Amino acid sequence: MRLNYIANALGLTMIYIGFVVLIPVIVALYYKDYNSIQPFITAALISCSIGYLFRKFIPNATTLENLNDIKKAEALFIVALSWIIFGIISAIPYLFYGLSPLNSIFESVSGITTTGATILTHYNYPQAFFFWRSLTQWLGGLGIIVLFIAILPQFAVAGRQMFFAEAPGPTEDKFTPRIRNTASALWKIYAGLTVIQIILLVFGGMSCFDAICNSFSTLAAGGFSPNPESIMGYHSNYITWVTLIFMFLAGASFNIQYRAIIQKNPLVLLKNEEFKLYFSLVILMALLITISLIFNTHTSLFSSFTHALYQVISITTSTGSASADFITWDYTSKILLFIVMFMGSCAGSAGGGIKMVRWLIVYKCMKSELLRILHPNAIVNIKVDNKTVAPEVARQIIVYVFYYFLIFGITSIIISIIEHNSTIGLSCSISGLGNIGPGFTKSTGPMANFDSINPISKIIMIFNMMVGRLELIPFMVMLQKDFWTLKDN
């Protein structure tokens, strides 16, 4: 890796982050909360200073005319380190509001990775505080794509490779000729849906401030809310259904949504295999939980279906928002919800998890192997949307799923031992790794927080949240010895 390329890209990124951190100052001024100005100005100055130091003291960092020939390993390292630094910078304002350093990092990483797990024990904080929580989620909502635009705007090859690394599908299916135009189209859809949801929530009686914060979190598949009871706290079926719909869109591929808008044909969505799997599994799991709720808790059909559908979408998209306290549900419903934690959203969406396309390809790989056993001489191609999936892509996806469950297994065992509770261990591990948010116990559920868990468990969750949002790829690459060979230029 070449230090001057890394320093150049990281320096620019940190400077841009410094300007972004200043946005909550506008909110503080609007509400005349002058005490909330210092936290964000301090964080902005630190971020800009880090960026300046990167570019100033690394030889030849500022003499590069462009970064077009950056290597993939360098780009992955830049992305990973940028997320880590962004998490630290985002934590600085929380220190001014009385949060401990570890809790500040936890809340910050949970925000930028759109996990939505919180350590807040009360909600007596000013508007600038809650706006920052939601803004960090909205900035992280497009995942690594956001950083590609910020860090690698001029890349022709490496930038494109990394762009698709965030949510790899069976093929690199770009929908505009240039990667910058593709990213721009994604941002237009993302921002447009956010504005529409804000308007609809305000129309439903939610305050403008709460509508902005909740919309930021919803489209980011994040889950943070200024209301301590999440969406349930607004006691409105209208607000619940509006949020439900936009959560579902946040978990669907923005690529496919763009095509549907351009072609003015919503049926384009139903021609996509991944979307059909996503839609089918959401409806199936929602119906199963609805049946369980009706027979076990004797709630009405409408209420059961509304909350079942909301929670299934919330968890499979890794939003973590809540329309009900599902910890009080019957055992069968909670088991079904736990299964949903492993489903994941669509590739190219704001959601987290394993991603539907990976499950689709794993299933087709298993099916093809069975056919080869029956017909040894048969040539079986794996196809998704009538496009052949290259054997190396299928192999990488299988390895990805293996590592995903390996990390889940190891971290769940460690947390279970630390907390002396296997339910906390299992739910905390997948909650962090899948960027989901709430756990499955009264102390970590949707109406609770993670403040009471052991500090070591918090550190493990922070690790899982970051690894889950980075999609494992930079993390696994950095474990290789050859990755750390440094060069001056």
Structure description:
Residues 154-159 and 165-171 have low confidence and may be disordered. The chain contains 20 helices and two strands. The protein is globular and about 70 Å long. A hairpin with a 2-residue loop joins strand 1 (383-384) and strand 2 (387-388). Helix content is 63%, strand content 1%. Helix 5 (101-112) packs across helix 6 (127-140), helix 9 packs antiparallel against helix 10 and helix 11 (237-250) runs parallel beside helix 14. Strands 1-2 form a two-stranded antiparallel ribbon. With 489 residues, it is mostly helical.
Give the tags.
single chain, 489 residues, mainly alpha, 20 helices
Question: What are the SSEs and their pairings?
Answer:
Elements: H1 3-21, H2 23-30, H3 37-57, H4 72-95, H5 101-112, H6 127-140, H7 144-151, H8 158-165, H9 179-203, H10 208-219, H11 237-250, H12 254-262, H13 273-297, H14 301-316, H15 331-340, H16 356-374, E1 383-384, E2 387-388, H17 391-419, H18 422-433, H19 455-469, H20 473-478
Antiparallel strand pairs: 1-2
Helix pairs in contact: 1-3, 1-4, 2-6, 3-4, 4-5, 5-6, 5-19, 6-10, 9-10, 9-11, 9-12, 10-11, 11-14, 13-14, 13-15, 16-17, 17-18, 17-19, 18-19
Order of helices and strands: HHHHHHHHHHHHHHHHEEHHHH
**Principal-axis shape:** globular
Enumerate the spans where pLDDT stays under 50 for 5 or more consecutive residues: 154-159, 165-171
Structural class: mainly alpha
Instruction: Quote the beta fraction.
Output: under 5%
- Provide the residue-averaged pLDDT: 84
Outline the biggest β-sheet: 2 strands, antiparallel
| Termini Cα gap | 8 Å
